[in-house]
Each structure stands twice: as structure tokens, then as C-alpha cells.
Amino acid sequence: MAIEHELVGANLIVRLNGELDLVEAAAFKRLVDDLLDRRKVRNLYVNLAQVTFVDSSFLGALLGRYRRINTQGGRMGIIRTPGPVRPTLELSGVFRMMAEYGSEQEALTAG
Amino acid sequence: MAIEHELVGANLIVRLNGELDLVEAAAFKRLVDDLLDRRKVRNLYVNLAQVTFVDSSFLGALLGRYRRINTQGGRMGIIRTPGPVRPTLELSGVFRMMAEYGSEQEALTAG
Amino acid sequence: MVQRNRVLVELAAIPENVGVARLLAAMVAAQGDFTVAEVDEVKLAVSEAVTNAVVHGYQPDSAQDHSVRMEVSLRENVLEIIVSDAGRGIENVQLAMQPAVSSDPDRMGLGFSFMESHMDSLEVDSAPGRGTRVRMTKRAGTAHLSRLEAN
Amino acid sequence: MVQRNRVLVELAAIPENVGVARLLAAMVAAQGDFTVAEVDEVKLAVSEAVTNAVVHGYQPDSAQDHSVRMEVSLRENVLEIIVSDAGRGIENVQLAMQPAVSSDPDRMGLGFSFMESHMDSLEVDSAPGRGTRVRMTKRAGTAHLSRLEAN
Ligand SMILES: Nc1ncnc2c1ncn2[C@@H]1O[C@H](COP(=O)(O)OP(=O)(O)O)[C@@H](O)[C@H]1O
Ligand SMILES: Nc1ncnc2c1ncn2[C@@H]1O[C@H](COP(=O)(O)OP(=O)(O)O)[C@@H](O)[C@H]1O
Fold first, then answer.
1. How many helices (H) and strands (E) does chain D have?
2. How does DSSP classify residue D88?
3. What is residue C71's three-state secondary structure?
């Protein structure tokens, strides 16, 4: 798995793919925390379009980033949740904290 | 894995996909032998375009069908060998017995 | 379709082997009569159980020679999975199994809940210093997620 | 990248588990510095060794409770794979390892040749009634097939 990211102004888009467990959770955490430390990032949008599996370790990393972004007054969103991973995200309650968008464009213009 | 086949006159085309080992070798053998018993099949063409792996059990099943087809005066051919499986087929010597074709059309018109 | 199978695996307790365990269990489930959605549920349960052994069972610094065992059995469309470690064990199993209970502030405490909600049965056997053993079963044709989606 | 790993698996001796063993070995190899072509070579060698245990090691009728063991270790970019069974064993190992030698007329007798040509080393330890143990190693960066293709 290679994590991609793109900074559009103060918006950070992170694109993930494949199966997301504790290994990817650690890489995601490292990447986002490093960018939050070094760059002027306000909002974080996580693109899940290419993701096939998510477990609670990855959800924990997502929530952890939400806490940090939220404390700094930013917004966090999920872009495109594939059908097979939706129930897991719903059970974890992440959608109560983050908006969901149909595309990166939609997320960026909603901000 | 689902094995597909098509009878075009006396030509049998078998389309395989995925990883071909002893499990698929047995299914391939059963399918071809059954058709050779029940239908008027003269030539056999095996389409490997969607195949990602081949081991010696499958090559053995291929050679076994070749012996039978050859005894009955027919011809056997391979259609499209993907790059990753080519060395295995070459090491086994199957190309010394069977012609190789770039498409099903080419195989059928060559007959 | 395979009627009976048994696969036993012993994996070095490293994060990268969680995916190995997941795929192994998925392959055995897929040999039986489990649907794609059911196989996904098995993968989630295995991911949680094996992650717990790697993350909570052993101290990270001593992890090198520790291992996690998983036994996957398929019998007449019932999958049985036993994940065990020889790690530090759990003091209060009932408490640990509650949703949102975790000894690690960076984790969600949803591991046991996910195992419970995606499998037909879950038994946890653990005591401090005696390691942890998680036994889960699932019968083909019981996809929990799809039921949830239908509601 | 993973520096060290060890996975040990015990599989019911059924044809469907050859693919399970292959994928498991491939996943561990892929954690190391092996290229896609090298991982394919490992898959072929494992497929041959595990197939032999399933097909030759045990009598088909008694296969139910028999198993094949595979140990996959990764250490500093060297993969070591040991496949063993407790089956009938081989009378003349040297002869059996020759290309085109098979005790089964429907098989090619290329199993050992494929293991030898796709791995860096191959050792076979077997005797009648004592089972068979195949040990193979491969260092990352030695793709044999691509060398062959270049010739
Ligand atoms: N294999 C294990 N070894 C030791 N402790 C464990 C094990 N599995 C679970 N636990 C304990 O149970 C708690 C709850 O586990 P779980 O519901 O999976 O949530 P999480 O992994 O997010 O903490 C863990 O925080 C840990 O304290
Ligand atoms: N695990 C095993 N147990 C018993 N006999 C074996 C085993 N592996 C190989 N053999 C013997 O060695 C012969 C050669 O093996 P191999 O080169 O793999 O060719 P093949 O499997 O096509 O026969 C086999 O035909 C069999 O008689």
C-alpha cells in the first residue's frame, strides 16, 4: 500500500487503498501528524474509494486525527466509502463526527 | 475459478483464469475428457490470457490432453501466454508440441 | 467446495502478520459455502483477534520471539477460529469485552465488539500471565453485516 | 519492509490447501525485498513441494487426518522454506530428483526440477516410511526466471 496525499490550500487530502489495519494505521498517523506539524493544514479529507477492508485499528487512527483537527478548529471528512467497508465505519460511529462526500471536489467546495 | 468452454465446429476452446494447480488440473481434465467422450471434438485450444500462475500439475494435465488429442489425429494449441507464466511453459517443453496463437480467431482460422 | 479443512498457523507476533492471518482465514472460509460478505466478516473478526495478541499480548520490545497461534477449522459449513497468545493476559475479561473499553487511549476498544457482532459465537479465556485464547464460530449463511444493512 | 519473520503452518493434506500454502509463502516473501518475479518463483517452488506431499506423501483414501507442515522464515533478505510430511517417503531420492522421473504416469516429473531451478538451494531428506522434508532457500535479488528470459 502506498498512501498518497495532496495539499490544496489549507486542505489535506489523503488517498488510501487496499486493506487498512494496524500497519496502515501507523503509516497514516505518521503522515498526517507530520504534515500537521510542518504545514498549515486546517481540514483533513480521507479518500477511501480504493479501500477494500478497514478494522478497528485503522478507525482508531482516524478518530485520533479527528480529535487533533477538531481541537485546532478544522473539519474532517470522508470521501467515498465503498459498500463493503460502510457497515464497519457505521458501527464505529465515525459518521457522527465526520461528513461524507461523494468526491474530492465536493469536499473542497463544501469547505 | 470457473472454466469456460466453447465448441466451434470440431474445435474446442477452453478458457482458464487465475492460478492453475492440481485443483484446476483435475477440473480441466474432467471437462475436456468428458467433451472428448461425448462430442465430436477434433482440435483443442487452451486460452491462457487470464491466467496468473501455472505449476507442473497443470502442465501435466495439458500434456495428458495433448497425448489423447494427438492419438486421435487432432491438433492442440495455446492461445495467449501471459508473460509471468511463459518461462514455466517453456521449461516444460509444451511449446515443442503445441502451436501458440495470439487470439482465438487466429487459432480457429489456422486450423 | 471443501467439506472439511483444518489449518493451524503460528505467526511471529509482528503487525505485518495480521494481514497474513486474515488472508489465511479468508481462504479457508472461501473454500466453504461462505458468501463474499461473510468472508469479509471473518476477516474483520480475525484482524481484531490477532491484532490484540500482537498489540496487547506482548510488550513491544520483547516481541521478536513471541508468536500468535491461529487454528481455522471448517466442518459442515461451520468455521471455527481459535486465536491464542502466551502473553500477559487480561485481568477482567468481562470488562475488557465491553464496547469502548480499552487499556490504550489511542485505540477504540471495539475489537471484542466487532468479533462478537460479526461471528455467531465468541468465547474469551484469559488470565494475567496465562495468555489469551479467543474462540469464535460462524455458520455459513448468517451474514451479520448484510442483516444490519437491511435494517 | 520486514527484516525478520517466521510463519509455521500445518495444513490438512488436501489439494485445496496447496493454494493456501502458496499464498502464505508469497505474502512473507513480499514483506521482504523480493520482486514480483521472485515472489512468483517462490510460489512455484512451494506449489511443487506441497503438491508432492499431498499427492505422493499420503494414500488418497487415508488423507483425511494427514497434514503437511510448512515453515517460512525471512532473515536479512533470505527466505527459507521447509515443507515436510509424515507420509510414505521416497526410496531413491537422487533418482526421484531427476527431471522427467515420476512414479505417476499422469505427472511430468518436473516438481523437483522446478524447485531447484527457481530457488537458490534445495535439500531433500526422505526415506521409506519416514516421511519427506524439503528445505529450500532464496536470497532476494536472484530472480532465476528473468535470467532465463534474458538468455
Ligand atoms: N490478547 C490480549 N492480551 C492482553 N490483553 C488483551 C488482549 N486482547 C484484549 N486485551 C485487553 O482488552 C482490551 C479491549 O480489547 P478490544 O475490545 O479489542 O479493544 P482495543 O484493542 O481497541 O483496546 C484491550 O485494550 C486490552 O487491554
Ligand atoms: N513428499 C513426497 N512423498 C513421497 N514421494 C515423493 C514426495 N515428493 C516426491 N516424491 C516422489 O518423487 C517423484 C518425483 O517428484 P517430482 O519431481 O515432484 O515429480 P512429480 O510430482 O511430477 O511426480 C514423485 O513421482 C514421487 O514418486
1. 5, 5
2. S
3. strand
- State the Cα–Cα distance between residues C54 and D131, nearest whole angstrom: 34
- A40 contacts: CB under 8 Å, gap ≥ 6: A10
Do the beta carbons of residue B21 and residue D47 sit within 8 Å? yes
Q: Report how far residue D82's alpha carbon sits from residue D80's, in angstroms, rounded to the nearest whole number.
A: 7
Amino acid at A32: V
Q: How many distinct helices (H) and strands (E) make up chain B?
A: 4, 5
Tally: H helices and E strands in chain C: 5, 5
Q: Which of D81, D111, D85, D87 has its CA nearest to residue D99?
A: D111
Supply φ then ψ for residue B99, to 5 degrees. Answer: -75, 160
- Partners of C9 on chain D (C-beta within 8 Å) are 7-10, 24
Q: How far apart are CA C51 and CA C41, in angstroms?
A: 15
CB B75 within 8 A of CB B69: yes
- Least confident span in C56-60, D30-34, D49-53: C56-60
Cell numbers at A59, concatenated: 478507525
Q: Which residues line ligand 1 (CB under 6 A)?
A: A 56; C 48, 52-53, 56-57, 85, 87-90, 96, 101-104, 107-112, 132
3-state secondary structure of A81: coil
Q: What pairs with residue B78 in β-bridges?
A: B46, B100
In degrees and rounded to multiples of 5, residue A18 shows phi and psi of 80, -145
ipTM over 0.85 threshold: yes
In chain C the beta strands, taken as DSSP E runs, fall at 4-12, 67-75, 78-85, 121-126, 132-139
Residue D122's contacts (CB-CB under 8 Å, 6 or more residues apart) are D112, D115, D116, D134, D135, D136
Question: Half-sphere exposure (CA, 13 Å, Cβ side) for C119?
Answer: 28
End-to-end CA distance of chain A: 28
D98 touches D81 (CB < 8 A):
no
How deeply is C63 buried, as exposed, middle or buried, from its count of CB atoms within 10 A (0-12, 13-18, 19+)?
middle
Give per-residue pLDDT as tens, A50-83.
999 999 999 999 999 999 999 999 999 999 999 9
Report CA torsion sign: C117, C12, D15, D47: positive
pTM for the structure as a whole? 0.92
Cell matching residue C56: 496487547
Q: Nearest CA to CA, how far is C128 from chain A (Å)?
A: 23
Cβ contact, residue pair D54, B22, below 8 Å: yes
**For cell 525478520, what's the residue?**
D4
Q: pLDDT of C52-71, one tens digit each?
A: 999 999 976 665 589 999 99
Q: What letter does residue D86 receive in the DSSP assignment?
A: -
What is the four-CA torsion angle of C34, C38, C44, C50, rounded to 10 degrees?
Answer: -20
Residue type, C140: A
Interface test with D, best of C1, C16, C50 (most D CBs within 10 A): C16
Residue pair C132/C85 in contact by the 8 Å Cβ criterion: yes
